[in-house]
Specification:
Blueprint: H1 4-17, H2 23-30, H3 34-37, H4 41-57, E1 64-67, E2 74-78, H5 93-103, H6 115-128, H7 137-149, H8 153-160, H9 164-180, H10 183-193, H11 203-211, H12 220-229, H13 244-259, H14 265-272, H15 297-308, H16 318-327, E3 331-334, H17 338-347, E4 359-365, E5 372-377, E6 380-381, E7 406-407, E8 420-421, H18 428-436, E9 445-447, E10 470-472, H19 474-480, H20 483-493, H21 495-504, H22 512-518, E11 535-536, H23 538-549, E12 553-555, E13 560-564, E14 572-574, E15 580-582, E16 588-590, H24 594-604, H25 626-630, E17 635-640, E18 647-652, E19 657-663, H26 678-691, H27 705-708
Parallel strand pairs: 1-3, 6-7
Antiparallel strand pairs: 1-2, 3-13, 4-5, 4-19, 8-11, 9-10, 12-16, 14-15, 17-18, 18-19
Helix pairs in contact: 1-2, 1-6, 2-9, 4-9, 5-12, 5-13, 7-8, 7-9, 7-10, 12-13, 13-14, 17-26, 18-20, 18-21, 18-24
Amino acid sequence: MSNRPLAAAGRLVPLLRAGLIAGIVIAAAAYPLVALTGLGAKATAHAVEQKTRVLKTALPAETSYVYAPDGKTVLTMFYEEYRQYTKLSDMSPNIQQAIVAAEDSRFYQHHGVDPKGVARAFVANARSGGSQGASTLTMQYVRMALRDSATTPKEVQEATQQTSVRKIKEMRMALDLEKELSKEQIMERYLNSAYFGHRAYGIYAASEIFFSKTPKDLTPVEAATLAGLVKSPSEYDPADSDQKEATGRRNYVLDRMSQLGYLSPDSAAAAKSEPIRLKLTTPPHDCAAVAEKYNSWGFACDYLKNWWSAQPAFGATRMERMDNLRRGGYRIVLSLDPKIQEAAEKNVGAKEGTGSPFANGIVVSEPGTGRVKAMAVNRTYSLDLSENPPSSNPEAGPKVKANYPNTVAPLLGGGDLAGYQAGSTFKMFPMLAALDSGMTLSTSFNAPYRYRSAVYDGWSPSNASAAMTGQQTMWSGFGKSVNTYFVWLEEKVGAERAVRLAEQLGLRWRTDVDRDHASPAKASKWGAFTLGVSDATPLEMANAYAAIAADGRYCEAIPVQAIMNRDGTPTTYATPGGIHREVAKPRCRQVVSADAARAATDAARCPTGDTPARGSCGGWSTADSVRGTVGRPVAGKTGTTDSTRSAWFVGYTPELAAASFISDPDNPFNAVGDGQSQIPIAAVAETLRDGLKGTPTRQFTPPSDAIVG
């Protein structure tokens, strides 16, 4: 056999020892293919320099954590690669020594490329025709960092493909990187980037998944087991029923640790005699993994995902934003209040339970911030629909499953479902628009049982009861829910103005019919808008009414109270004016005057059996039990649709606003019936009562004399 390759290697090693930066030279000798590529140092120098700069600052993908409001209780995680970045000081010396023994015994002697290792690999490859790599820890880190920072499939391929060109670039970058980073920094980054199998990326994840402990507590045996996995995570997987390969690899690492002086021969021998003892952990992932104790919080988690995907602060597209959620290492604290959430869970579905086609749900929002304090529905948050009965929608077919008892559908809002017709709860929007335009609470109209509208081309709505006939004001008209009064009032203020105000208060039109009616060309003729023929979600309605409780200041609905970057700083976004604001901070704006909102609240006390500050409710109301249940000043509005296909109640105090509904999400024509209309009223009243228990009672601010009239 020719000895030319061996002689060539012998001449090259001293050159590298002499400090020649041209790792490319030895690569060209060891990989003759390079000569055919026309690759020159000058042609690649700029690209290599740029990538080296990226590697200095590149951080691997990191798990994002979702916490309960205490900021400590982990509800779930989002990750593409399960990883938590860990400082070297928080790692046991055992794992640092084991990884050196397993992968690069001369790590602390070379400068990124190991001349001996390259020569050894070259000789072995020349003799056997193999492809021994000779990659140092630094070179391996370069490869992982290039892969992790890749933004296109092409970049991923270039970072991992088995070619001479890649190897040369890798060597050059490793040499350059070691001029910029210390060995300790490279070791830290390596151990946070390496893949150990079982979706464990980085040493924190590996320690937790295999041994249910932190990297700081790893023993030599455990460290050697993990270090042995890097070479081939599947081949040496200790979780396999047969641990023969894993044990052999671990023992090899222990022997190398002994040879390098990290372990005494006796300690290594004792360690090798031990079996591999695992304590496996499966980290939760996504909303379906929320612990059973917090199952109902899964709906809020799902809302968080939908909200996140719409925030420009996290990327230019929905895909990019969700990718950042799974890779960005955020610390997300939900806004749910455990006390209010518990009250909501207890008070929804008390009569229906999870085994009903009728969904009874509630959302509670905080006036002045828009933070969601509770989301609950009589459903189990689960992906498993196997035990669900067929859908109640006759057009769905027998193979389509119903949404109960299990579902992950966003029945409470925040997703792509249209919602449910909200009935007379929409009367708030023309009343608020009228008050904000200068009309007074005392605006009076002799409301007939049936009213023929000239504005709406002869449309003739009627009241639910003949007892509503007669002279009405905003107080009595709202308290009794007099349809003909509000159709007349909407004519006076203009339907389009009411529609646009609803939009400013957060409502969105999700069906073709609603979008058509709300369009600029047709909104002025949408007379039935005040009767709540449009679909809405409880999230939207709770937040819209919360703005009225906050003196007309609307705040966007938000599911978080804090979002922190991986470095612990608050996550921010840039406004159109270039101002950086925290993503988790309330985003509020004044939509109507404070006096108009206070006047609307005064009228909205009538439906609940409360006493307004200035006017008369006319003797009776649609939900007069609410005030007695809540036990403090409260305002709100009932809403039912034709044939009581759905029923609603939206109520609020100065501290909280809550919206509850009951309807069949699968089949809107499956009427809940008049007997069920009290369920949302009770759910809101009891949730406000329980959620505010023990807190000081606050009063509504009365409207001014000018707006009372």
